[in-house]
Amino acid sequence: RIVLSCILFFAGILTFAQDKAKLQKQNQELKKEIIQLGKELKKNQQDSKLNVDYVQNLEKKIEVQSKLVNNLTKEKRLLDDDIYKTQLEINKLSRELEGLKEEYKKVLVKAYKNKSTANKMLFVLSSRSLNQAYRRIKYLEKYSDFQKAQANEILGKQNDIVKAKQQKEKAIKDKEKVVNQQVIFAKGVDSEKAEK
């Protein structure tokens, strides 16, 4: 159950990463195109503002900048979705961690009540046969291993929560960068439209 949820979580991350990478590649191409159009506009602007090439290049630049702003909006939406999914994963892991801690607490209380080695020795020595004594020793070993496994599982959940929180923080920082870029390019579109 835990493995399945982790697999589904990481499959979602992989899909998100592919979409995000695709958008970032498109954004880079659009930025290059904007720079090229800006150079052409300056060249044409020197000739004449009434020049048809200048007006066409200006319209093209506005169109490309608008596409970039739209792509940045999509990337922001993807980042919002990633932040939301990561928070859901953190909440789920936290609930599972609390359940594991409760179970482990019960095991520790039971172990504390029966902690003396004399109790364990009496448990083994009160066996009716050597075979039963052997099974009781194995039971005590498995019980000890179970306690260690539960402790390790709790530590693993805590590590998963820390990683998910780090991923969420990274997504928030990425979102801030995208929003800043979006604002810059939106202002550029507005100034280009005013110039037109």
- Shape, principal axes of CA atoms: rod-shaped
List the quaternary state of the chains. single chain
Along the chain, the helix and strand elements come as: HHHH
Number of helices: 4
Strand segment count: 0
Beta-strand residue percentage: under 5%
Low-confidence stretches are none
Gyration radius over CA: 31 Å
Q: What kind of sheet is the major sheet?
A: none
Describe the structure.
The chain is built from four helices and no strands. The protein has helices spanning 2-47, 52-113, 117-125, 130-195. α1 (2-47) packs antiparallel against α2 and α3 (117-125) packs across α4 (130-195). The chain is rod-shaped and about 105 Å long.
In short:
It is built from 4 helices and no strands.
Descriptors:
single chain; 196 residues; mainly alpha; rod-shaped
Per-chain topology:
Blueprint: H1 2-47, H2 52-113, H3 117-125, H4 130-195
Helix pairs in contact: 1-2, 2-4, 3-4
